[in-house]
Specification:
It is a single chain. The protein contains one helix and five strands. The protein is mainly beta. The protein has one domain (14-111): Thiol Ester Dehydrase, Chain A. Strands 1-3-4-5-2 form a five-stranded antiparallel β-sheet, covered by helices on one side. A hairpin with a 2-residue loop joins strand 4 (90-97) and strand 5 (100-111). The chain is globular. The N and C termini lie close together (8 Å).
Length: 113
């Protein structure tokens, strides 16, 4: 199945701001006395942004150049930005907390059957 048409470019990125509540199950067991947001939860926020923009279910096909640069605590505001990459099925993403780079990389999808 073809890659989703996100109708975006580097001048018009998809954007979202999210805050993960302290009682979110993402923090359960990660870690009880010092909760931090797991990397997979950060990537899930990117997937949800792209999926909602496309208004379709997507299947993740790849990740590359992913870097986790900052620990995220409960209640921290995250700003997510996604732009089309040079290949049709790839998108570049960046997550910021304030002015700090939290996570960045490339992500690829196809539309689920």
């Amino acid at each position: 199945m073809p890659a989703p048409d996100l109708e975006n470019d580097s001048k018009n990125p998809m954007k979202a701001s999210v805050t993960i509540a302290e009682d979110s199950q993402w923090f359960t067991g990660h870690f009880p006395e010092n909760p931090i947001l797991p990397g997979i939860a950060q990537l899930q926020q990117v997937v949800e942004l792209i999926s909602s923009h496309c208004d379709t279910d997507l299947q993740l096909t790849g990740l590359s150049r992913v870097k986790f640069k900052k620990i995220i605590k409960p209640g921290e505001l995250l700003n997510i930005q996604v732009t089309a990459a040079d290949k049709k099925d790839q998108y570049m993403f960046q997550i910021l907390s304030g002015n700090e780079d939290v996570c960045s990389g490339r992500i690829s999808f196809i539309i689920k059957n």
